[in-house]
Design a protein that fits this description.
The protein is an alpha/beta fold. It has helices spanning about 5-15, 25-30, 45-60, 65-70, 120-135, 170-180, 205-220, 240-250, 275, 285-290, 365-385, 390-400, 435-455, 480-485; strands at about 30-35, 60-65, 80-85, 105-110, 140-145, 150-155, 160, 190-200, 230, 255, 260-265, 270-275, 290-295, 295-305, 305-310, 315-320, 335-340, 345-350, 400-405, 420, 460-465, 470-475. A nine-stranded mixed β-sheet has the order 8-18-17-16-11-19-22-21-20, with helices on both faces. The protein has a seven-stranded mixed β-sheet with strand order 2-1-3-4-5-6-7, with helices on both faces. The chain has a four-stranded antiparallel β-sheet with strand order 12-15-14-13.
């Protein structure tokens, strides 16, 4: 993973906490875990819990007693991960003891097979996983059998590890990132909301709307984007827990896979080469300061091929699918929204004339989407300085770029020329997390460096997210991307 752009800059540009851990070592150092005793616990779970506790100690993860983990009123302190092995009655569920819905990750650990089979379709898999999470009111489930233990996440991710006793290496590699990078939907209260400001019916929008529709149809034969689990179809222990799930999802209709997005045309001024700029910032300043000021302008320091560049961040606008819509059968009148990032402020523009019955929410992956858009203008800026003949800046300014995310991986044979892959060795986090947004922007600089080393024209990048899926971003349209990924 590249350190080409500092967390301080990412914090200023995207609102990511500058203390966000990006490596598994930092994640372990930041984690605090408590184990909640169950009313009924099997011998297998007792053995698993003991091994997990030992693995956490080996990794330097802080283990707290229940008393240490709680406030005086019995609620869990913010940031504590709550492990809940076994079965709990309604009144003893850990969710009853959180002060806010986003303060704690709760992990259910079960002595049973995961609620899916090898033959489960992606739709069935997502329905069963989300249904079990909603019933148990947890964010993450671990299923323990006599052969293996399996982690299931709220966006349908499944990872199975052989053996019944978790080894420290497996915990560090698979579980720690999922406990450190919480999936939190962007709340409309955190955004500058402009209802009705997005007008999909305008003449100059017709080509874009057609691209979304054609793209959706070309993905319809691929099961990875056929999924949508409605929260209204789930079973809950009580009306209270139904309301809690709705609040957690910020009233979204349910959970689904993937997104389509179109970045609007964006022009960026050529980057400045630090050694030619007259700026005398030290290496430590370049790695720690959010922005550098030079001649009344603000620049982001970016390290490319061991050279520091100063990039002027410009506003970016992206049209994307709303959270929970059916990507393969889009209704452009209600299923598209616009996002704008300018000076750290995110503006959400929902469709004009939206029916009162339609809940329009930004994608869970909003930060990742905007991170990719921002990375595109950074690359445009740098290429204008060091490769003036590159077509990427010209085409980004004229046509924009497309973004596609799905919970699968492309074969090498379908990757187009000029697209460069990154991310395979990153910790396996969901793309709905701050870490993913950071990996996206830093990884794009890795992709740019690959193109420069190979002396090949840059056209886009493929961000591989381990245990999760793929973001493919570049100059091809959505429908063209759908064609080559799906072999059409």
């Amino acid at each position: 993973m590249s350190n080409s752009i500092s967390l301080a800059s990412l914090g200023h540009l995207l609102g990511i906490d500058p203390t966000t851990p990006l490596t598994t070592a930092d994640m372990c150092a930041r984690l605090s875990i408590t184990f909640l005793p169950a009313e009924n616990n099997s011998s297998r779970l007792q053995c698993f819990t003991s091994a997990l506790l030992n693995a956490c100690n080996v990794l330097g993860i802080r283990i707290l007693s229940e008393q240490e983990a709680c406030r005086s009123d019995g609620t869990f302190k913010p940031g504590i991960v709550v492990m809940a092995p076994g079965e709990f009655s309604d009144e003893l569920l850990a969710i009853n003891r959180v002060s806010t819905l986003y303060n704690n990750i709760i992990v259910g650990i079960h002595d049973e097979h995961p609620p899916l089979t090898a033959a489960s379709s992606p739709q069935n898999k997502l329905d069963r996983i989300v249904g079990k999470l909603a019933w148990d009111m947890v964010h993450l489930s671990i299923y323990v059998t006599q052969e293996s233990w399996t982690i299931c996440t709220m966006n349908g991710g499944v990872v199975s590890i052989g053996g019944t006793c978790p080894l420290p290496s497996d915990v560090r590699k698979t579980l720690v990132p999922k406990l450190s990078a919480q999936v939190v939907p962007p709340k409309t209260s955190d955004l500058d909301h402009k209802p009705g400001a997005f007008k999909a019916g305008l003449t100059d929008m017709q080509e874009i709307v057609k691209d979304f529709a054609t793209c959706g149809k070309r993905w319809s034969s691929n099961h990875y984007l056929l999924t949508h689990t409605s929260r209204e179809t789930l079973q809950y222990r009580s009306p209270l827990y139904r309301k809690i799930v709705a609040r957690y999802l910020d009233q979204r209709s349910g959970m689904s896979y993937g997104f389509f997005a179109r970045q609007q045309p964006a022009s960026a001024p050529p980057a400045l080469l630090l050694k030619e700029s007259g700026c005398m910032a030290s290496e430590s300043e370049l790695k720690s300061t959010p922005l550098l000021s030079l001649e009344n302008k603000h620049y982001v320091p970016v390290l490319v091929m061991n050279e520091w560049f100063l990039v002027e961040p410009v506003p970016v606008t992206v049209i994307t699918t709303r959270s929970g819509c059916r990507k393969t059968n889009l209704n452009p009148d209600i299923d598209l929204v616009a996002l704008r990032l300018d000076k750290g402020t995110i503006t959400l523009m929902t469709p004009q004339g939206l029916p009162n019955t339609t809940i329009s929410r930004p994608s869970f992956d909003t930060l990742t989407i905007l991170s990719h858009a921002l990375g595109n203008v950074f690359i445009s800026s740098i290429l204008q300085k060091i490769r003036p003949s590159s077509l990427f800046p010209e085409l980004l300014a004229k046509k924009g770029a497309s973004m596609t995310h799905w919970h699968g991986y492309p074969g090498k044979s379908v990757i187009p020329d000029g697209y460069f892959s990154h991310g395979r060795n990153n910790p396996p986090v969901s793309c709905s997390t701050p870490q993913s947004a950071a990996y996206s922007l830093q990884g794009k600089i890795e992709a740019l460096e690959q193109s420069l080393r190979k002396n090949r024209d840059y056209q886009g990048d493929i961000h591989i997210e381990p245990n999760h899926g793929t973001n493919i971003v570049g100059l091809y349209s959505l429908s063209e991307t759908a064609s080559f990924i799906n072999g059409l």
